[in-house]
Amino acid sequence: IPVFYANTVLLNVSNLPFRLQKLKEMFISKFGSAPKFYARAPGRVNLIGEHIDYCGYAVLPMAIEQDILIAVEPVQTQVVQLANINSSYLDFSTSVNNIQINKTKPQWHNYFLCGLKGIQEHFGLNNPTGMNCLLDGTIPPSSGLSSSSALVCCAGLVTLRANGKTLSKVELAEICTKSERYIGTEGGGMDQSISFLAEEGTAKLIEFSPLRATDVRLPSGATFVIANSCVEMNKAATSHYNIRVMECRLATKLLSKSKGLEWRKMLRLHDVQTKLGVSLEEMLTIVEEVLHPEPYSAEEICKCLGISLEELRSQILSQNMQDVSTFKLYQRAKHVYSEAARVLEFQKICSEAPANALQLLGELMKQSHISCREMYECSCPELDRLVDICLQFGAIGSRLTGAGWGGCTVSMVPTDKLNIFLKNVKKAYYQTDGQRLAVENNSLFATKPGRGALVFVEA
């Protein structure tokens, strides 16, 4: 696996893209000296496989053009100064020897600190290099396109380079996955993995334990279109996401206990399938047999596991889950096992490329959205309406993408119908609402697989 320096791109100043040149000029104006290097980490769109990475299952994302770009100057003082070209994000500075990440206020600089701290702790850096950093982001925030993880990844890359260290892309992805949890989000690793492992022109099947990425060539004749519902959802600012993680963990425990497995050691729904040595379809049958659709109380979970409420709270529930009174285990497990099967089917169709591939893939995307809406309950009225509009105006398949509860949809549209599709969706969703109309130009766009994180240095 190549270290990230294998992707270093040498650029002449005269040939720097406009955005990079503008960032350099603003950096000089801000800090009084020129940046020594730049780092870029892309956002991503997940084509299928929602809320299953933290359960141990493969997902199928691709990197997008929108990204986080950071200009960097290592400095002698052990201080990190952060600035953003977007004036709504306030400047921040801190000692590199005293990194404090505030979980209660997921502000932009805390995501940078996650990546910084992750690299520092991995290498045990006692006197890490200080840095001046200026950031430019083009990923719509809280949109389900992984702006926060891209910032964590870019910060990790920046810290690695500034301190003269090297890691493989896989190692970087795994470190940044762990370090984003400093802000309180129990993510599974998809966002960080695709940010580092993405390659231009191909989506990726991302598998875990061990982390690996396989090319998935998307069929010709269709274009993927991202549409922002304009409902913002910050994973770290709400409990929706972490409650789902915990419900999956509890479902894992109950399924394991019912099958005589060592349930205390079991953390992910994938572990249950692996231990039992059965198919995903058989796991769905087991869910029907073992779990009931009615919500479980904490007391009922304790009875099923043969433990006290105190043990549940201290040994299984995370600190921010102590006050949750009911858990939907049947629905969450049903979604995870069925969605995991849809991912594998999606990859298989792309690989075999039958004549009706687009229709088959579109059907999987529709099924995924229905499951997200009804079983995982991570959609919202605006996302559902946007999916319906996209399907009405010619999308072969459409679904929410990202954590949900807001953010974006991804739709597969016949390329020859793309322009009329974009025109109709704009009219039906954005131009009927003044607030959406104001951000319309950045909210609906076609995309194709982009490349992963890079370091740029001037020749």
From TrEMBL:
Pfam families to which the protein is assigned, alphabetical: GalKase_gal_bdg, GHMP_kinases_C, GHMP_kinases_N
GO function terms (MF aspect): ATP binding; galactokinase activity; N-acetylgalactosamine kinase activity
Start and end residues of each Galactokinase N-terminal domain: 26-74
Domain named GHMP kinase C-terminal: residues: 355-430
InterPro entries reported in the protein's UniProt record: Galactokinase, Galactokinase_CS, GalKase_N, GHMP_kinase_C_dom, GHMP_kinase_C_sf, GHMP_kinase_N_dom, GHMP_knse_ATP-bd_CS, Mevalonate/galactokinase
EC number(s) reported in the record: 2.7.1.157
Annotated SUPFAM superfamilies: GHMP Kinase, C-terminal domain, Ribosomal protein S5 domain 2-like
GO BP term, pick one: galactose metabolic process
Keywords, comma-separated and alphabetical: ATP-binding, Kinase, Nucleotide-binding, Transferase
Catalytic activity as recorded in UniProt: N-acetyl-alpha-D-galactosamine + ATP = N-acetyl-alpha-D-galactosamine 1-phosphate + ADP + H(+)
Domain (GHMP kinase N-terminal): residue spans on this chain: 110-197
Assembly, per entry: Monomer.
Similarity field: Belongs to the GHMP kinase family. GalK subfamily.
NCBIfam families, A to Z: gal_kin
Protein name: N-acetylgalactosamine kinase
Organism: Brachypodius melanocephalos (black-headed bulbul)
